[in-house]
Specification:
Elements: H1 4-11, H2 16-27, H3 31-43, H4 48-65, H5 76-87, H6 91-110, H7 114-128, H8 134-147, H9 163-181, H10 227-240, H11 244-251, E1 254-259, E2 262-267, H12 279-293, E3 298-303, H13 312-333, H14 335-344
Parallel strand pairs: 2-3
Antiparallel strand pairs: 1-2
Helix pairs in contact: 2-3, 2-4, 3-7, 4-5, 4-6, 6-7, 8-9, 10-11, 10-12
Length: 357
């Protein structure tokens, strides 16, 4: 008999048990277990770029498994395992881990040392992924404040706000309490700068498309939608097909037009288009496009205009830089930090950003 591990090794495929175990360790907030998954993959001869893609894909499948009514084109035994694992964790944490591993996939692809980049991405997901929903965090702060004899942060009487607004309220009202009175070893968000003051957190990221029978999003039903929205849906369709290398390349493309079954794109740097020159990869991309469009689709790579619009990669990088600036500014202006500066009669010499929270 040939075991699954032997078959995977012979075919050069990744052992899905290693992939699932590594993501599971991240969700359990077990850094040693997550890094052990990297060691096991390395000993099995796995490519780190491929491993990063598989980890992000597994995290995405867990997110979809946590959403009621969402269909995934996977074998029944895989779907049962995903559903079981997804039920054990908070949907916000699943979404946040997916976002961090997706960002880590891009980092690994560009890194001089892919293994180190992957380990950083895993550790960031272990330590910075949220361990609970926002209402639970607010309740914990109030309970801790009551035990200390202080007044807990007042609940908002206004209608429910978006997660980002709620996160800011928690940071503003309870940040000093968390920074100074949280028991050692209690799970929680790590500080995002060297001052150790808590800063506003980014809201959990969830897939920005809704699955339909045609794929992650039916582009055909949104024929009148703006080009950038339709393009996002097509890239998500490629990512849903688990063609992560192709999706990463398409992130750097500029959509020119989507019409009559033709998807025309351009690249500022032609080297970014190289992954799409592979015949099998291109066929898989066009098949994903066809499922989303509901009709046969052809990918055409043309010369990008001199001043093209921003690519999806450009937008992600710009948003990431903006969040970094906000975190650094919030660290400098945090009441606990300002109070410490006033009491000590000193000044803030430097604030170092430790990444997403």
């Amino acid at each position: 008999e040939i075991s699954e591990t032997e078959a995977a090794g012979t075919l050069g495929a990744l052992d899905q048990g290693i992939v699932a175990g590594t993501v599971g360790a991240v969700l359990r907030r077990d850094p040693a277990g997550a890094l052990q998954g990297v060691v096991q993959a390395y000993e099995a001869g796995a490519d780190f770029k491929r491993l990063a893609e598989e980890l992000a894909a597994h995290a995405r499948n867990l997110v979809l498994a946590s959403l009621p009514g969402v269909k995934q084109d996977l074998p029944d035994h895989e779907l049962r395992g995903l559903s079981t694992q997804a039920r054990e964790h908070d949907p916000a944490q699943l979404a946040r881990v997916f976002e961090l591993l997706q960002q880590g996939q891009d980092d690994v692809a560009k890194a001089a040392s892919p293994r180190h980049a992957l380990e950083i991405a895993l550790l960031r997901a272990v330590h910075l992924a949220p361990s609970g929903a926002l209402p639970e965090l607010v309740q914990k702060v109030e309970q801790l404040s009551s035990r200390l004899g202080g007044a807990g942060p007042a609940r908002q009487s206004a209608p429910a706000r978006a997660p980002a607004s709620g996160a800011r309220t928690l940071a503003e009202n309870g940040a000093a309490l968390r920074a100074t009175a949280r028991p050692e070893g209690e799970p929680g968000d790590g500080p995002s700068n060297a001052t150790s003051a808590s800063t506003p957190t980014s809201p959990p990221s969830t897939p920005n498309t809704t699955p339909t029978p045609n794929g992650p999003h039916s582009v055909a039903s949104d024929a009148g939608a703006p080009l950038d929205l339709r393009w996002r849906a097509l890239v998500d369709a490629v990512r849903a097909a688990r063609k992560m290398g192709a999706a990463t390349a398409l992130d750097r493309a500029v959509p020119l037009r989507i019409e009559n079954g033709t998807v025309a794109i351009g690249f500022r740097n032609q080297n970014d288009a190289l992954p799409l020159e592979d015949r099998e990869t291109r066929a898989a991309v066009e098949a994903a496009f066809a499922r989303a469009l509901g009709t046969k689709a052809a990918l055409r790579i043309e010369q990008a205009p001199e001043a093209p619009q921003a690519s999806l990669h450009d937008e992600k990088e710009r948003a990431r830089k903006e969040r970094k600036v906000q975190r650094l500014q919030a660290g400098r202006e945090h009441p606990a930090v300002r109070a410490a500066v006033e009491v000590l009669g000193g000044e803030i010499e430097d604030v170092r950003d430790l990444g997403e929270e």
